[in-house]
UniProtKB/TrEMBL annotation:
Protein name: AsmA-like protein
Record's keyword terms, sorted: Membrane, Transmembrane, Transmembrane helix
UniProt organism field: Roseimicrobium gellanilyticum
Superkingdom field: Bacteria
Transmembrane segments: 12-39
Length: 513
């Protein structure tokens, strides 16, 4: 009997333990099922939509709104998401359309809403002007990550932070502040991944267009990489096609903070001059430009080089070719063409200008353009042989030293004035005066023969009557010189030179140009 009672007691205890375990399993399962059902309902509720908007707003220090949220398995669809700033950010609206997010619910066990991928059909960022940025900021609000209706024991299981692994955007637009000339981007294909520091993103883009203030033609983006945070957009490397077949690389910063200006630098390659010169120069100047540049809202600096440069069809060059009997002046091939250019407003400084055609001519110096007005100081070097038909040019004009210039040239300075449409230089008159003085130093019959040769070079033969006129004036001037003395003689010489120059202009057409 005792043995039966003991066996019965053990069996009862075992059944109680089994029932207890079953009840515990059912209870835990029920709680888990309840939690699962509650979370599933919560994910589809306005409360979750509000929480997600709060998380999104917190990520960019702004206020976010989400429209038309729907679930399909682990994928969340939002028709529109918008964010406005709560701080002094330089943007006033970030708006996305056609948003699809893939959520990893397993990560919720670790307290994280993990979004493995976000895809947007379109994302637009509107910038705001300095005047639109508030001076006084509202106090920060505390985010509520769990709704009040949630059971207290469940709140500690609900994720309190969000992790996004990747964002892909089919079309990204960056719009400058209304009424301002700023940087703009249109239809850029963009991918983004979070950087190591919180709130920053690493961006990679392709296609689309970029427009910079003061630059008429848009840049067609090939590829770009950048870093975005609340303070700025830092362009690490960008490559774009520009006018024609030219290519531009760029790097720089676009700050969102008040009072900080954007700045970019890079390189321009394969830009044909025909795309940047006025119509009146298309048949006169050609070549391919390359440049290293730095640009800010107020100043553009660049180091320019032109390859395969050619200058032709200029009346001045044709006159020089006739005058010097050197046909290479009609079509000058530039073996070197470089300059440092700085532009601010309507003022352009061209410094360290070098134009050289080997074995023919070299020009170097500085030029300033103020609107259409032009002013410059140049050094011009030519080979002595090209001056043999210009009496007095080597002895009285091309006599200046230029230690920095290449050997073999003789040098003189040239002052440039006038406008871009009508450039004036002082070299021609100085050559005429030199020729006039030289005419007083040679026998009259030789001077007359020189005039005949100059006329032939200019394509307008000088008649014997004209030669006689010049020699007569020279003889008259010489007689006055012989009669004078001291200062009077010096003034008479100057008058004789001026007389000779005036006669030359009338006799040889090239001197009237």
């Amino acid at each position: 009997m005792k043995r039966r009672k003991k066996k019965s007691s053990n069996s009862l205890l075992l059944r109680l333990l089994l029932w207890g375990a079953l009840i515990a399993v059912v209870a835990v399962g029920g709680v888990g099922l309840y939690g699962y059902i509650w979370i599933q309902g919560y994910l589809k509720s306005p409360a979750f939509q509000k929480m997600l908007a709060q998380q999104l707003g917190n990520a960019v220090k702004g206020e976010a709104t989400l429209d038309s949220m729907n679930w399909s398995g682990p994928n969340l669809y939002v028709s529109r998401a918008g964010v406005t700033p709560k701080g002094s950010q330089g943007w006033k609206l970030i708006e996305g359309e056609g948003v699809e997010a893939s959520v990893d619910f397993q990560a919720a066990r670790s307290g994280v809403w993990r979004v493995t991928r976000i895809h947007l059909d379109r994302l637009r960022m509107d910038l705001r002007s300095v005047a639109e940025i508030p001076q006084e900021l509202p106090s920060d609000t505390v985010l509520e990550t769990a709704p009040p209706s949630m059971p207290g024991w469940l709140k500690r299981w609900l994720p309190t932070r969000t992790q996004i692994d990747e964002v892909n955007i089919d079309r990204f637009d960056l719009v400058p502040a209304k009424g301002t000339e700023g940087v703009s981007v249109k239809e850029l294909v963009l991918g983004a991944k979070p950087a190591t520091d919180a709130g920053a993103w690493l961006l990679r883009g392709s296609e689309g267009t970029l427009t910079l203030p003061g630059v008429k033609e848009r840049f067609r983006m090939t590829c770009t990489s950048a870093r975005l945070d609340a303070r700025s957009l830092a362009l690490n490397d960008g490559v774009a096609k520009w006018i024609g077949d030219s290519e531009v690389t760029a790097r720089g910063d676009l700050p969102f903070e008040k009072g900080k200006a954007w700045q970019f630098s890079g390189h321009v390659a394969n830009l044909e001059l025909k795309h940047v010169l006025g119509a009146e120069w298309l048949s006169k100047v050609s070549g391919t430009l390359s440049s290293d540049y730095e640009v800010t809202p107020t100043v553009l600096k660049s180091k320019v080089q032109v390859k395969n440069g050619v200058v032709e069809n200029l009346p001045l060059l044709n006159y020089v070719a006739d005058f010097t009997r050197t046909q290479r002046f009609r079509r000058v091939v530039l073996d070197a063409a470089t300059a440092d250019i700085e532009r601010a407003g309507d003022t352009t400084h061209v410094r360290n200008l070098v134009l050289q055609s080997d074995g023919l001519v070299r020009v170097q110096g500085d030029v300033t353009l103020q609107g259409r007005a032009i002013q410059g100081k140049l050094m011009v070097g030519v080979l002595p042989d090209s001056l043999r038909w210009i009496p007095g040019s080597q002895s009285q004009v091309f006599t200046e030293p230029n230690p920095a210039g290449p050997p073999g040239f003789v040098w003189t300075h040239v002052n440039i004035t006038g406008t871009v449409d009508s450039i004036r230089e002082d070299l021609s008159n100085r050559l005429l005066i030199a020729m006039g003085k030289a005419a007083l130093d040679v026998p009259l019959d030789l001077a007359g023969r020189s005039l005949e040769m100059l006329g032939e070079a200019a394509g307008a033969p000088v008649s014997p009557t004209a030669v006689k006129e010049v020699t007569t004036e020279v003889m008259k001037a010489g007689t006055e010189v012989l009669k004078g003395s001291g200062d009077a003689a010096g003034k008479t010489v100057e008058k004789a030179v001026e007389t000779g120059v005036d006669v030359l202009k009338g006799v040889v057409p090239i001197f009237g140009k």
